[in-house]
Structures are given as C-alpha cells and as structure tokens.
Hints:
Blueprint: H1 2-24, H2 39-58, H3 63-85, H4 92-113, H5 119-137, H6 147-171, H7 177-186, H8 189-196, H9 202-224, H10 229-254, H11 258-263, H12 282-299, H13 304-307
Helix pairs in contact: 1-2, 1-4, 1-6, 2-3, 2-4, 2-5, 2-6, 3-4, 5-6, 5-9, 5-12, 6-7, 6-8, 6-9, 7-9, 8-9, 9-10, 10-12
Keywords: Membrane, Transmembrane, Transmembrane helix
Transmembrane segments: 42-59, 95-113, 151-169, 176-193, 205-224, 231-256, 276-293
Protein name: Integral membrane protein
Amino acid sequence: MLLSLAAVSAAMWAVGVTILQPLSEPEGPAAYGENNTYWARELRWGALIALILMAIVYARGDRRATRAVSAGGLLWLGADLGLDRIDQDSGTMRLAIGAVVAILAGSAAVRAFSRVSRPGTLLTTATVAAVASGLVTITESPTDTEVALHLGSAAVGSLLASVAVAAAVRAAPVVSLTRVAVGVLLTAAPWLLRYVSPQPSAGRVIGAYAFTVLLVVIVVAIALRRNDHTPVAVIAALVLPVLWLPLTLATIVLRTGAPFTALAANPPADAADEDVVLILVAIPIGLILGRILRAFASDRPLTAPDRMPSR
C-alpha cells in the first residue's frame, strides 16, 4: 500500500510535467504571467511533496533516512525545474515509468538502512500531508475553467490526504480499523469540494479549512489512539489560520515563485500580479502543527478510555 501511493505520486508528478504544465504556460513573444498562472506547478509540486513524504513513511521516519529522502527531494525538484525549462511536453509514459522506478528504488534504499521507527516524525509527516491536501484543493487559475485544473486539484488533494492517513497508520502502535475507515472516507473530500464549488468562493475555502481540521483530528486519533478529539480540533483550527495568513502574505510580498519561474525559463508574472508557490507554505505549517500536537500529547497522560481498544 505504501509503495503504491509512492508510485501513484510519481506518476501524477510526471503527468503534471508533461501535460498540465504546458496547459498553464502563457504563449507568444510578449507573453507574461498573471495571478495563479502557474497553477500546474502547484499541483505537480503537491504530487512531489506526496512522494517525498511517502518515502519517509516507508522508512518509518528514521532520522538518517528522513535526511536522505529530503536531500533526494531537492534533487528531484532540480530535475523538475530542468524538465520545465526544456518544455518537456511529450513522453508522459516514459517519464512516469522512470519516476515510478526511481521512487521505488529510492524507497527501498532508504528502508534498507533505516534502523529506528520514529512515531513522532511520522505524525508530523501526516500533518504536513494534511495541510498540503487542504491547500492544493483550493488551487486556482486565472480563469478557473480548465477541466484539468479541477481534476488535478481533486486528485492531488485526495492523494495527499491518503498519504496523511497512511503516515498515521504507520505511526500507530495498534491500528483502529474504525478510525482508519473514517480517514479513508475523508480522502474523498477534495473531489466533493471541487465538484460542489468549481469556481473560487468563500464556501470552498471554508470547506477546505474544515476538511483540513477534520483530517488532522483523525490522523492524530489514528496515530496516538486518543479519544480527546476536541482539544486537537481546537489546536488545529487556531494554528492553521494563525500560520497561514502571515506566511501567505510573506510569499506574496517576496514573490517566492519568481525565482522558480526564472529557473524554468517561463514568462515572468506581471509586476502588478503575484507569483507565489502556495503549496510550499504547507511544509512549515505542517511541521509546526505537528510539533505542537506532539507536545500536547506528551503533556497529557492517557486516560482510562484512551487505553481501551477502539473498534
């Protein structure tokens, strides 16, 4: 199951490179980008984050393995920018097969020298995936009419939610099938949100926010086998906007997407518009949220109901 998710992530990344990216790039000698022009970058980097996280999960969160996977992820990002720069718009099957082989071989390699399972790292991996799932689900484009945008956003959002649940299961000392079933049901939420609200709206943002909070609650319930869900929901509900707002503002002011746009030799965004990569914001938010939840769990001893096996 873990390797299957890693393989799907790699294949979706390849589709993002060769099919989605060409759809999003402006054409013409005087072309320039607008707000959300490079929506395909958000989606394929969401898939890239998913495959990196799955490799960490497969290695059980081992410290050395996590460092090796992170380094490999940076190399993969470099390859991504290189393919974008040469406008790779064909050979989807070959690229997908190569990416799948690479992630499977890499996962097997890091698993071979991983020694210690680290449930805390796995829980943090789950929170990063959960936050990324919510963010990629609300990806927009200048027109928001592209079928590929809606399908890709829902698919990558569902993929990341699946990664979050898988990481939580890997971290759990004993797996509760009931809680896992709830988590699996939640992975369909990105599809529902994109179907109900195909155009950007406050409702879709609120829905994605509620979905992310619920996903965080269920992954904590799976990983830590705790029954006190309300405090976890409150922490997630407060931490997410408190971190998301300033980090998003910082990405807008700093135009964090501009260097990647230049490295990929794509038309720059107009000076009056934004060039950001919002999916990357999920990483610090998820890391901080995971740390807070781990500290919360360690400060609260298990109560009698918590020790009872869940169905």
